[in-house]
Each structure stands twice: as C-alpha cells, then as structure tokens.
Design a protein that fits this description.
With about 150 residues, the protein is of the alpha+beta class. The protein is about 40% helix and about 15% strand.
C-alpha cells in the first residue's frame, strides 16, 4: 500500500483514516493535502469501503490507479497553465509589436487638378443650368393626405 503512495507523497502530505462501519466493514479515506496554490482537484479524496480481507487484497490496486489519475490530472493542469501563460505572453508581445509599428498618419497627396482649357473665341459658351443638390434622402413626393403611400 505504501509503495503505491510514494509518487503522490513527493509533493504533498497524505492523510489516511480508517473507520469501522460495522462488524464486517471498514472505510479507508486517503486525503491528499497539497500546497496552498494547488488546484482543488488535486485534493480529491479516495474513499474505499469493504471487508478487511477485500481491503487487504484490493486497496493497493485502487491506490495505484488513484495515484496515476492524480499524476495525470496534475500534468494536465500544468500543461493547461503553461499553454495559457504562453498565449497571454504571445498576445502581450503582439500588442507591443503593433503599438511600436503603428505608422503616423500620412496626409494624402493633393489631387492633381485637370488642366483647364481656356475658351477660344468663336467656341459656343455652355449654358449655366442650375445644378441640383444631392441629399442623403430622396426628394419628397406628393402623398395623399392622412396616411402612408403604399
């Protein structure tokens, strides 16, 4: 039983309690206590209830599985934390890069004006027709009173 607990004991304390449930049954609790900054998932206890002879035969296997799951969970949490930290660093670097590569606004070059042709004597002079001013909305049309035109 203690050989199976060795990997989990490397970074934390494990509390083991044994209680008698009735004349033929015992309950064993294995409760890992981690550091203050550990994820609470790493402090999930294992409780095994059964007759003493079954506990003698099976508890070691169950502890081995529990420790393996505990180690996989710790590894997965560490990988997720590292991935999130790397993503945050990449986002900060990208923001810094964008901030330093922002170009000052450039003023557009003045548009070249088309050459003007001076009228020669004898050319017809175009009439000065009034220009229509374009607006955002179309011009209002006459509607019948008292409702919307459909």
């Amino acid at each position: 039983m203690f050989v199976e607990l060795m990997p989990i004991l490397a970074g934390r304390t494990v509390l083991i309690t044994v209680a008698k449930v009735d004349d033929k049954t015992l309950r064993v609790n294995v409760i890992p206590h981690g550091k203050a900054d550990d994820n609470p998932a790493l402090s999930t206890p294992l409780t095994y209830t059964g007759p003493p002879d079954e506990l003698d035969a099976e508890l070691g296997k169950h502890l081995a599985g529990y420790v393996q799951t505990h180690q996989q969970t710790a590894s997965t949490l560490a990988e997720a934390k590292a991935t999130m930290e790397a993503a945050a660093k990449a986002a900060q670097d990208e923001a810094k890069r964008k901030k330093t590569t922002v170009k000052p606004p450039t003023t557009p070059a003045p548009a070249s004006t088309p050459p003007t042709v001076s009228p020669t004597p004898g050319d017809p002079v175009p009439s000065s027709a009034p220009m229509e001013t374009l607006g955002l909305f179309p011009p209002a049309t006459a509607q019948s009173q008292g409702g919307l035109a459909l």
